[in-house]
What does this fold into?
Amino acid sequence: MKGSKGITPVIAIILLMMITIAMVGFTYVWMKRVFSSAANSTSSSLNEQQKAMGQKVTIIKASSSDGVLTIRNSGSYSIDTSPDKSKLAVFVNGDAVTCNWYKDKINPGDTNNCTITCSPGEEVDVNAPGGTDTATCE
It folds into this structure.
C-alpha cells in the first residue's frame, strides 16, 4: 500500500524501549519505598520489644507490718512508675491493688517503694513489661 502512513519500525522500537524504561524506573522507586518502610517498621518494633524485655523487677520486701512493698529494677532500662504511665501492675493473691509509688521512675539497679495492704502468707506479684516476680507477704 503506497498511500498508507504509519510509524517506522525504528520509532516503534524506541517508543517501546522508553515505555519499558519508565516502567522499570517506577517499579524501582516503588519497591525501594516499600522495603524502606518495612525495614523501619521492623527496626522500631524490635527496639520496643528489646526495651520491654529490659524492664524487669525483683521484689525485695513485701511487709504486712508497715505495708511497704520494695522492688528493684533488675533490668537494663528505666521503668516509668508515674500514676498516669505506670508500666507496673501489683497483685495480692491474684487481685489487682493500687500502688502509689514513691518515685516516678526506677533506673536500672535502683529501688522503689509503695504502700500496699497484705496479710502474712499472701502472695504478692509485680508484673513488669519484661516479666513477673512473686514474693510472700511477711
The longest strand covers residues 57-62. Helices lie at 9-53.
